[in-house]
Design a protein that fits this description.
With 319 residues, this protein is α+β, with helices and mostly antiparallel strands. It has seven helices and 13 strands. The strands form two sheets. Strands 3, 4, 5, 6, 7, 8, 9 and 10 form an eight-stranded antiparallel β-sheet that branches. A five-stranded antiparallel β-sheet has the order 1-2-11-12-13, covered by helices on one side. Helix 3 packs across helix 4, helix 4 packs antiparallel against helix 5 and helix 6 packs antiparallel against helix 7. The longest helix is centred in the N-terminal third of the chain and has 30 residues.
């Protein structure tokens, strides 16, 4: 199911792709009918559920390889996102961390561009040493020491990955749409974020403890399936904070069902079951797209730099 870009930006509202049809052999087609051996009622309910503003987001799966017993095994890796409620002092600390990460990211891009123009080859370690370690010793960048070094190092790694994606796109190694030269981050960007590895955060019963920020309260809408390998603290355009964890999950094998039910997917109706049950199509995405289009038209009419435009940006972010 397609989602608008802005609906993903405020909250990932999609249900988990692994909820019902995780097995590739769950369906087999016969004409327009598909037979499944899963609980069809639960499947239809999860698909038809409206995309509400829950505290967490849908999982985004991808594969991560790890060694288990000396064997390389692909483990599905997903993101679990939760609503965060930092205190006023913590919000200031996060704003400082967002700004320092932005400066280091821009310095890393500028350093690589200048080295390329001068014909100098710089390793990733040398770039990090210049924009983080040596920069902290200068009066112009001494305030970088006020935030965790993990934030600065990950910002430098993000710049390296942006250049790698650009080079791979130019050479054709990277599939998909073409990627341009990494752009500089701006303090006026509506979305701000910092990325942390395991030594920069700790999960607590009340939330997450971020280095040099403190304990941030989270709305634990569901438990984490495993120990997270990284965390991203995000401030959206509407002023809401979120924390996204990257975790490894095990493949869940659903028990075999005794009964078989045919499912006919359609447009006017979401699904028609062989038992005679009709699942209506609520068309949540279409209604949300209309609301988003109205908010975007209102934003386009606002004068740049005005207070009304900032309010319109927040309204677009929550649609």
């Amino acid at each position: 199911m397609a989602h608008s870009a802005n609906s993903r930006r405020a909250v990932d509202r999609s249900t988990s792709p692994t909820d019902s049809s995780a097995s590739p052999n769950a369906f087999h087609a016969s004409g327009s009918m598909r037979t499944c051996r899963v609980l069809v009622a639960a499947t239809a309910a999860s698909v038809a559920a409206p995309y509400g503003r829950g505290h967490d987001a849908g999982t985004t799966p991808y594969l991560c390889s790890t060694y288990i017993g000396g064997t390389l095994v692909d483990m599905p890796t997903v993101r679990y996102r939760y609503r965060a409620y930092p205190a006023p002092g913590q919000a200031q600390d996060l704003a400082r961390a967002f700004g320092c990460a932005r400066v280091v990211f821009n310095d890393a891009i500028r350093t690589r561009d200048e080295a390329y123009k001068a014909g100098e080859k710089l390793s990733d370690t040398e770039v990090q040493r210049r924009v983080v370690t040596l920069a902290k010793r200068t009066p112009e960048r001494a305030w970088l020491a006020e935030v965790s070094s993990v934030v600065l190092v990950q910002a430098c790694q993000d710049a390296r990955r942006a250049f790698r994606n650009w080079f791979d796109s130019l050479s054709g190694k990277r599939k998909g749409r073409k990627v341009g030269h990494p752009r500089f981050r701006s303090r006026k960007d509506n979305r701000q974020s910092i990325r942390l590895t395991r030594n920069g955060f700790t999960v607590t019963p009340q939330g997450v403890r971020v280095a040099k920020v403190g304990d941030i309260r989270l709305a634990w809408s569901r438990p984490l399936p495993s120990v997270p390998s990284s965390a991203t603290v995000i401030r959206e355009a509407d002023g809401r904070y979120y924390v996204s964890f990257v975790v490894d999950v095990d493949d869940v094998l659903y028990p075999a069902a005794d009964a078989e039910v045919g499912v006919d997917l359609g447009l006017d109706r979401l699904a028609a079951l062989s038992t005679g049950e009709i699942v209506a199509n609520p068309r949540h995405l279409r209604s949300r797209q209309r609301r988003l289009a109205r908010a975007q038209r209102a934003l386009a009419r606002k004068q740049k730099g005005s207070a009304n435009r900032r309010k319109a940006v927040r309204r677009v972010a929550v649609e």
